[in-house]
Specification:
By secondary structure, the chain is mainly beta. It has a single domain, classed as Beta Barrel (YmcC-like fold). It is built from two helices and 15 strands.
Length: 262
C-alpha cells in the first residue's frame, strides 16, 4: 500500500511560531520504522566516531544557524507589519545506537533572538536517502530515541505521506507522539523571495487544528531549498464550514551561516 493510499487527515494543535517549528518545524512520516520509543542501555548516545555532517533537504552540521522574521500577510499577498522573530541552531551531535545501527544525530534547538539564550529542549535530526528524519529528543527530564520520517526527499509534486507528530509536553515534562499530520508536496519549483535573495523551492504543506478557534484549521506551506533548509513559510486560516482560506502570516529567512545555493 503506497503513502497516498494510507494518507488521512488527523490534525493537531499549532503552538507558537517558535514551537511550531520545533515540534513541528516541525518539523515525521509513514513508511518510516521506529526504534523503541524509550531510553535504555542498548539505545542511547555512545562514544563513537560521528559523521561531521548530514546533507539533504536540511543541512546538518554543528554550528549551523537559521534566523527568521514573521510578518502579517494581506489578502492580496502583501506583507504587513512584523509579528515576531525566531532562530534555530545545531548545537551538538551524538551517536545513537540500536541493536542494528549506530547513527549520528544532530541536536536542533531554539535560540532566543534578543538574548541569544539557547533552549533546553533538543530535537534530534538526520538525513537518510529517503528524506529528513526526526530521531527523537532530549529534554531536562525526558529523553526519547526513535526514527520518524519528517520530510520526504527527493520528492515529487503531489506526493503525500503521514507524519507522526513528536512534541515536548511542557506540562508533563516529556516527549509525546499524540497524533499524526498529513504532509504533501505541492510544488517542486516555486519561486520565493527573501531578504537574502530569490530561491527556487520545494513546498511542503500540512494542516493543524486550532483548539482555541473551533472549526478553523491552520494551513501551513513551508518553502525548502535542498542544502539550505527552510527559507520561509506562508500560513493561512482555513474555515471548515465555508471552505474559505484567509491569509495570516509570511516568514522569511533573514540570516544564516549555511551556504546559499539557489
Amino acid at each position: 500500500m503506497n503513502k497516498q493510499q494510507n494518507a488521512r487527515y488527523s490534525i493537531v494543535k499549532r503552538h507558537s511560531w517558535a514551537w511550531r517549528c520545533c515540534c513541528l518545524l516541525p518539523l515525521l512520516m509513514l513508511g518510516a520504522f521506529q526504534y523503541p520509543a524509550c531510553q535504555n542501555d542498548s539505545e542511547s548516545p555512545v562514544n563513537s566516531l560521528p559523521e561531521p555532517t548530514s546533507m539533504g533537504i536540511l543541512p546538518l552540521k554543528v554550528g549551523d544557524y537559521w534566523e527568521y522574521r514573521e510578518f502579517a500577510l494581506g489578502d492580496s499577498g502583501t506583507v504587513g507589519g512584523e509579528i515576531g522573530t525566531s532562530a534555530f541552531k545545531i548545537s551538538r551531535l551524538s551517536v545513537v545506537a540500536s541493536s542494528t545501527n549506530r547513527d549520528t544525530v544532530f541536536h536542533w534547538v531554539y535560540v532566543d533572538v534578543k538574548t541569544g539564550v539557547v533552549g533546553n529542549i533538543e530535537f534530534l535530526y538526520r538525513n537518510f536517502d529517503s528524506g529528513l528524519y526526526m530521531m527523537g529528543g532530549v529534554g531536562p527530564e525526558d529523553t526519547l530515541y526513535t526514527k520518524l520520517l519528517r520530510l520526504s526527499y527527493p520528492v515529487q509534486k503531489g506526493e503525500t505521506w503521514i507524519s507522526p507528530h513528536l512534541v515536548y509536553n511542557l506540562a508533563e515534562s516529556k516527549f509525546l507522539i499524540p497524533d499524526s499530520q498529513v504532509y504533501r508536496c505541492t510544488d517542486t519549483s516555486a519561486s520565493f523571495e527573501t531578504p537574502l535573495g530569490n530561491f527556487t523551492c520545494l513546498v511542503y504543506n500540512h494542516m493543524e487544528t486550532l483548539e482555541e478557534v473551533p472549526g478553523t484549521l491552520r494551513d501551513v506551506y513551508d518553502y525548502y531549498v535542498a542544502g539550505v533548509g527552510r527559507v520561509g513559510s506562508d500560513i493561512y486560516n482555513y474555515r471548515e464550514s465555508t471552505q474559505e482560506r484567509y491569509p495570516l502570516s509570511r516568514s522569511f529567512l533573514v540570516s544564516t551561516n549555511v551556504p546559499l545555493g539557489r
